[in-house]
Amino acid sequence: MTTTTEIVLAEELQSLHTSYVRAINSAIDSGDDQSARDLGVAHDREKAALVAAHRGRASSRPRWFRRR
Fold first, then answer.
1. Which 3 state secondary structure label does DSSP give 68?
2. pTM listed for this prediction
């Protein structure tokens, strides 16, 4: 069963993805490969932070990866 929280997260992730796809495509069209790479990295970090926030965690690192 899908919860409202999961739907909201899915919608936010889709919106984030769409905005980054546009920005990355624009950078590629302009011949700015470095900006495209930087945007790709930023997308991954922002996506991880968004998922972590929805899961109620302060860190986007998996629990097994965190130092104690």
1. coil
2. 0.73
Helices 4-29 and 33-54: crossing angle in degrees, nearest 10, is 170
What contacts 49, CB < 8 A, 6 or more positions away? 60
Say how many CA atoms lie within 13 Å of 54 toward its Cβ: 16
* Residue 11 amino acid letter: E
| Tokens 């069963």, located at residue | 1
39's tokens: 């945007």
pLDDT at 22 over 70: yes
Cα–Cα distances (Å) from 12 to 29, 36, 50, in that order, read: 26, 21, 8
Q: How far apart are CA 41 and CA 64, in angstroms?
A: 22
